[in-house]
Amino acid sequence: xxxxxxxxxxxxLLGLTTAQAQDDVYPAKPDAGKLFITGGTIHVGNGxxxxxxxxxxxNGKIVRVGADITPAVGAKVVDAKGKQVYPGLILSVTxxxxxxxxxxxxxxxxxxxxxxxxxxxxxIVAYNTDSKIIGTLRANGILLAGTTPDGGTISGSSSIVxxxxxxxxxxxxxxxxxxxxxxxxxxxxxxxxxxxxxxTQTTPDVTKEALAKVEEIKAFFREAKAYxxxxxxxxxxxxxxxxxxxxxxxxxxxxxxxxxxxxxxxxDFAKEFGxxxxxxxxxxxxxxxxLLKQNNISVILQQLxxxxxxxxxxxxxxxxxxxxxxxxxxxxxxxxxxxESRFRNLAxxxxxxxxxxxxxxxxxxxxxxxxxxxxxxxxxxxTLEAGKDANIVISGGDILDMRTSLIEHCFIQGREVSxxxxxxxxxxxxxxxxxxx
Length: 437
Hints:
The protein is α/β, with parallel strands linked by helices and 437 residues long. It has 2 domains: 23-87 and 382-437, Roll (Urease, subunit C, domain 1), CATH 2.30.40.10; 89-191 and 201-381, Metal-dependent hydrolases (TIM Barrel). Helices cover 30% and strands 22% of the residues. It is globular.
């Protein structure tokens, strides 16, 4: 009986292991040779467009980009004639690799830690390169992502990963680039079904509670500043050590905030501590766009396909916010945090912004160059320019248009990566079953 139980347990654990992996899709091998992508319409990512252009790649780096480049004899050539060539898209803030099935299998999730102040938590060491979601992102042109912890007041540090790797060490593109702070809400939560539970229950003073929490956060950063200003310490404080990069500006403070009051507090943090602050969420950022610009605060707009923050806002306000920030000169990126579609619609969020005031090249910048600047990796990626990593997407049509976007090739640091994934495999499986292929 004992042997039967052990056997069944082994099969169950094996099933869990294989359910998390995608064993027939492997990371691409390093390509040390030369590569030429020829004949395509090249969208550089900085607003420039080159018709019938060529990209020369050597050892994973872009060497030249232009219209008058002749491929070297014997080099690998990819014909992109009639196609659109883009920088790899960047998903700035996401739980990809940390959360697989949000409300289903608890063992597939590792995105949140116990406790309220967890700056020493590092998402990178929990990043799962075998996530099935990663393949669906690559197939939509998303090649880099900021894998981010969640929960508490200070969640920990995010890291930028490239989405074609054997393990987290291979995936790491820039480690611990930002510390994430969840700003307390200044608005009362709506009562469920419009009812109060309990005859003597009173409405809490939400603003008072939020301000008290803000003072608690400030006290933490003041203590951390004093600690990191000292030369030696008898005992190491891991939490204070983890935020040292904020004071030297080697890290950014990503403040998750949607309300104007929350963002005003974030600006106050930037002034008091000298932090490089980015607002994550920012659904009401259009109301204070000029103030954000004056204080050099960047914004990551989490989800365009959403309802406005308050009932008094225009129903299409989320669609118009990118154009308002662009007009004010605010550095902003577009993101996708939709749980059901699992972030694959990033490019189409940008396409929606085009319909509401951005040009196509501005929208492209919001998911490439702008995102790279905010994440601190624009020296390596975000545009198709000489000296940068060859993170390149070739599409059969407009990548921002759901009707015509068809990703045909993706390259990460010069390696052509697989576009196969669990969803394409299921598609072919059942097309074959019913004789449709």
